[in-house]
Each structure stands twice: as C-alpha cells, then as structure tokens.
Amino acid sequence: MTDENNDQLDENILHLIETDARLTYTEIAQKLSSTESQVKSRIEELIKLKIIRKYTTIIDWEKFGKESYTAWVEIDLHPQAELGYDEIARKIGNHSSVQSIHLVSGTYDLVLVVKADKMRDITQLIADILAPFPDVRDTNTHFILRIYKENGEMMYEDRELLRGPFSP
Predict the structure, then answer these.
(1) What is the pLDDT along the chain (168 residues), one digit of tens a residue?
(2) Is the torsion defined by CA of 71, 96, 111, 152 positive or negative?
(3) Is the CB of residue 69 less than 8 Å from the CB of residue 117?
(4) Are both 137 and 77 inside the same structural domain?
(5) How far is Cα 122 from Cα 144, in angstroms, rounded to an integer?
(6) Of 70, 100, 155, 157, which has the fewest beta carbons less than 10 angstroms from its beta carbon?
C-alpha cells in the first residue's frame, strides 16, 4: 500500500475513533473496507508517532452526583524573549487541574480550561500560581455554569432542558 493510501486510511481511522474510541479493530475495518490487521497496524503506528495522544471518556459528573467546576482562564502575557509562550504554557500545564492550554488571538494570549472538584482550587490556582507568575500581566476567569455539549456530545436530553416560563 502506498503512503498516499496509508494517509487516507489513517485519516479515515482517526475520524472514526475521534467520534467513538470504543470501536474495535474489526468494526473499523468493516466500516473502511479494510482488514483488521491493517487497521491495527496503522493505529499502532499512529500511537507511536503520537498522532493519537490519548483515549478519553466524557463523564457527566452532575448525573453521577458529584460536584465539579470548570473555568476558562484567559491570560494576558508579556513573555520573556528567550522563553516565549511555549515555555510559559509548559510551566502552567504542569498543574493537574489545567486540562488544556490554547494560544489565541485577541486581547488575551492564552486560554486555559481548568477543572477541579472545588471552586476554591481554581481560585487558588489563579491567585497562587498564575497571578504571581512574572510574565502574567492580567487574567480573566469565566466559570462555566452549565455544559450543554462536550466534545461533540450533547449533555442534556431535550426533556431536561425544558423550563417553565420566567416570571420576575
């Protein structure tokens, strides 16, 4: 099989497992008219190349009965010339509650997604770690009040979203 064919097979595999990581090699092979051994070999190569970084699960902690908090934290930076954004992101990313870090355009430079069991853990991260960081000029925090859709998955069925009329 040529590299071009492998590239197309790899892309098709990636689209399938991005949507449902529980698919078996057999199921993927059937959907792509390929063989199980070929699919397994390509996935192993994609893992080795770190193209597939992690398999994950979307959990509705609210339905499970456990409180959790999510916040977007925007950070305005003045990075040192020799360090740049990459080094700052690496240092901030070492904190376990930081789920993702994005370099963005606009007023702020980085946007973090932070998750914790207690709101206080998020505020402490901002006050004790981010604010004193020498390159941080400003932060702006948005606490997520309700997640309607997470990684392509609707988190509430229509009946759960129905509310009575609002009256002051």
Answers:
(1) 457 778 999 999 999 999 899 999 999 999 999 999 999 999 999 999 999 999 988 888 888 989 899 999 999 998 877 778 998 899 899 999 999 999 999 999 999 999 999 999 999 999 999 988 888 999 999 999 988 888 888 888 765 555 556 555
(2) negative
(3) yes
(4) yes
(5) 12
(6) 157
For 86-128, give the DSSP string: HHHHHHHHTSTTEEEEEE-SSS-SEEEEEEESSHHHHHHIIII
Instruction: With CA atoms as reference, report the closest residue to 130 among 110, 145, 107.
Output: 110
Please indicate, yes or no, whether residues 83 and 119 belong to a single structural domain of this protein.
yes
CA gap 23, 34 in Å, rounded: 14
> CA dist 141 to 9, 55, 74, 123, Å?
41, 28, 6, 9
Residue 156 is which amino acid? Y
Q: Does residue 36 lie in a domain region?
A: yes
Could you tell me how many residues make up the chain?
A: 168
Taking only Cα atoms into account, the Rg of the chain, rounded to an integer number of angstroms, comes to 21
The total of structural domains in the chain comes to 2
Say what angle helices 36-48 and 3-19 make with each other, to 10 degrees.
90
Dihedral angle over CA of 39, 42, 48, 53, nearest 10: -70
Q: Give the position of tokens 């700052």.
A: 88
